[in-house]
């Protein structure tokens, strides 16, 4: 009988020791174990159940150094939107790039391209600044992408669409300092900048949370 009582008394002590060894503090409120988050509403929430074309514009100087940048960014943005909005139909960026390459009209407008692919909506991204190297130190990699973003709603009238101008996007990677240029580093910095840029553009079309 005495043996059983002693065993029962040691149970709370054993549990306490186990919790301490695990680094647990059972007295800390659950709310304090995670950072608070803030919800952000979509700037434009009508891409769901819509056929959407992503169109990226870049100036000739940028295209000379990065001839596929329009296709690459459109692909990243389209993939991110599709991942967050499964009901949104994204026009294949390969077909769009091929059409723009074959077209003799160098000034194709978003509505012309959208109409060609029977799109309801065109997300038009205009690159205002695109750099992968630091212009003051070419041996240092520091990507900076700036762009305006507009939505062309073609459902009412493809020739006179409703245009919604959204907040511009700016991405800098790395945020501080830079990375020494090598071919491998250049590829990695550029890829990371694309991913960050695509996320900034895509999140304009769905609700998301961020830690504060």
CATH topology type of the largest domain: Rossmann fold
The total domain count is 2
- Got a strand count? 8
Question: What is the H-and-E element order?
Answer: HEEHHEHHEEEEHE
> What's the shape?
globular
Strand proportion, as a percent range, falls in 25-35%
Q: Quick one: biggest sheet?
A: 6 strands, mixed
Report the average pLDDT across residues: 85
Structural class of the secondary structure composition?
alpha/beta
User: What are the segments in which pLDDT stays under 50 over at least 5 consecutive residues?
Assistant: 1-28
Q: Give the CATH level 1 class of the largest domain.
A: Alpha Beta
CATH architecture of the largest domain: 3-Layer(aba) Sandwich
Number of helices: 6
Radius of gyration: 25 Å
Helix share bin: 25-40%
Distance from first to last alpha carbon: 57 Å
Descriptive report:
With 212 residues, this protein is an alpha/beta fold. The protein folds into two domains: 2-33, no CATH class; 37-211, Rossmann fold (3-Layer(aba) Sandwich). It contains six helices and eight strands. It has helices at residues 2-21, 60-65, 69-84, 93-102, 110-116, 183-202, and strands at 37-40, 51-57, 89-90, 121-134, 137-153, 162-173, 179-180, 208-211. The strands form two sheets. Strands 2, 3, 4, 5, 6 and 7 form a six-stranded mixed β-sheet that branches. The chain has a two-stranded antiparallel ribbon with strand order 1-8. A hairpin with a 2-residue loop joins strand 4 and strand 5. Helix 3 packs across helix 6 (183-202). It is globular, with a radius of gyration of 25 Å. The model is unreliable at 1-28 (pLDDT under 50).
């Amino acid at each position: 009988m005495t043996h059983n009582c002693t065993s029962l008394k040691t149970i709370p002590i054993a549990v306490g020791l186990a919790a301490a060894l695990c680094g647990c503090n059972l007295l800390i409120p659950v709310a304090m174990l995670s950072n608070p988050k803030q919800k952000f509403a979509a700037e434009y929430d009508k891409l769901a159940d819509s056929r959407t074309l992503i169109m990226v514009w870049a100036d000739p100087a940028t295209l000379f150094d990065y001839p596929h940048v329009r296709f690459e960014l459109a692909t990243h943005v389209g993939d991110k939107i599709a991942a967050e909005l499964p009901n949104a139909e994204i026009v294949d960026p390969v077909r769009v790039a091929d059409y723009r390459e074959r077209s003799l009209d160098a000034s194709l407008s978003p509505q012309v391209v959208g109409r060609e692919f029977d799109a309801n909506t065109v997300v038009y991204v205009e690159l205002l600044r695109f750099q992968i190297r630091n212009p003051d130190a070419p041996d240092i990699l520091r990507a900076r992408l700036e762009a305006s973003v507009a939505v062309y709603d073609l459902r009412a009238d493809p020739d006179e669409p409703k245009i919604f101008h959204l907040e511009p996007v700016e991405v800098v990677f790395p945020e501080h300092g830079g990375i020494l240029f090598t071919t491998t580093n250049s590829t990695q910095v550029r890829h990371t900048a694309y991913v960050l840029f695509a996320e900034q553009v895509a999140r304009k079309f769905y609700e998301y949370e961020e830690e504060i």
